[in-house]
Amino acid sequence: MKGGRGLVIVLVGALALGVAIYAGLHDRRGADAALKRATEEAATPTVQVVHPSASDATDELVLPGNARAFTDAPFTRGPAATSRN
């Protein structure tokens, strides 16, 4: 009887392994299909076309900050420069 019992255990183990492998392959197949769909959707670019239009000549471009010539810009001395004096 021991030989028959060992064979049953091996067969049950092989069956469990086969079911686990099948379930893993089935899940992987579904994930591959979902990835393919998502990739195809992402591969299609969405573009908005904007046509330029002329604005009034009175519009002024205002930028933040002050523009100064390099020679007029204030420079401060850092700690390394003041420690030598």
Question: Can you give a write-up of this model?
Answer:
By secondary structure, the chain is mostly helical. It has a domain of 42 residues. Helix content is 55%, strand content 0%. It contains two helices and no strands. The mean pLDDT is 79.
Please summarize the sheet with the most strands. none
**What's the gyration radius in Å?**
37 Å
Distance between the termini: 101 Å
Shape: elongated
Low-confidence stretches: none
- Number of E strands: 0
Mean residue pLDDT: 79
Helix content: 55-70%
Structural class: mainly alpha
Task: Tell me the quaternary state.
Answer: single chain
Quick recap:
The protein has 85 residues and is mainly α. Helix content is 55%, strand content 0%.
